[in-house]
Design goal:
Number of domains: 1
CATH architecture: Alpha-Beta Barrel
Binding site for substrate: 8, 64, 140-143, 173-175, 195-196
Distance between the termini: 12 Å
Protein name: Ribulose-phosphate 3-epimerase
Keywords: Carbohydrate metabolism, Cobalt, Isomerase, Manganese, Metal-binding, Zinc
Bound molecules: D-xylitol-5-phosphate, zinc ion
Number of strands: 8
Radius of gyration: 16 Å
Number of helices: 8
Binding site for a divalent metal cation: 31, 33, 64, 173
Active site: 33 (proton acceptor), 173 (proton donor)
Strand order of the largest sheet: 1-8-7-6-5-4-3-2
Length: 217
Amino acid sequence: MSIQIAPSILSADFANLERDLHAIDNADLVHVDVMDHHFVPNLTLGEPIVKRICEVTDLPVDVHLMIEDPDRWAPEFAKLGASSISFHMGATHAPVRLARQLRAMGVKACYAVRPAESVEPIFDILEEFDMILIMTVEPGFGGQKFLANQMSKTRRLRDEIKRRGLDTHIQVDGGVSPSTAHVVAEAGADVLVAGSAVYGSPNQAQAIDDIRNLAQA
Ligand code: DX5
Ligand code: ZN
C-alpha cells in the first residue's frame, strides 16, 4: 500500500504561509485544520485563507473541518478548490447526505472519528466515503501525544475495508512522527498527517521523507 504524507499547516508560521507551503513540495497532500471555537476549543482559519491556500499550492488540499454544523458549512469549503473534506461524526446530522453532496461537487468525502468514537457504526455507510480519518489525539491542538490505543480501531477498519474489497483510505491525525509512523502504517493507515513533526523540524522536506520511509519500513 502506498503511503501518503499530509503535513498539517497548523504548525506552520501563519505569517509566512506561502513560504511554508512551498517547503513541503515533496508531500502528497496539504492538511488544513479548520476550527471554530465550538466543536473544539481553538480557532484557526476560515474560507478566505483556505481559498488562498488552494490557489498558492500545487498539492491537493485536504480540509479537516473541526466545526459545528458541517452539514451547513462543508459545501462552502468544497467550492474553494479543496480536493478532500473531512467532517466529524460528532458534528454532522446527515453524514450520507453530506458525503453525497461533496462527491457531487467533485470533492472527496471523509468521515472523522474522535478517540472515544468507534468505527463500527461507519461500516454500514463505508461506501459513501473516500477516506476515514482516525484521530490519534483529541482534536484541537498540534503537538499532543500520540494515542496508541487507537491502533486496534485502525486495524478493525482496515480489515473491514479489505474484506469488502474497497479502496477507502485511512488517515491518521495526531502525534504522527518518525517514531510512530511505522506503527500507524502497520495498523493499516495509508494517509499520515503530521504537523509538529514536519514544521517543528529545521528541514521540512527531510522530515516528510523520514516519515514516509519509516512508515514503509
Ligand atoms: C489536531 C489537528 C491536527 C494537528 C496535528 O486537532 O487535527 O491535524 O495539526 O498536529 P501534530 O502532528 O503536531 O499532532
Ligand atoms: Zn487535522
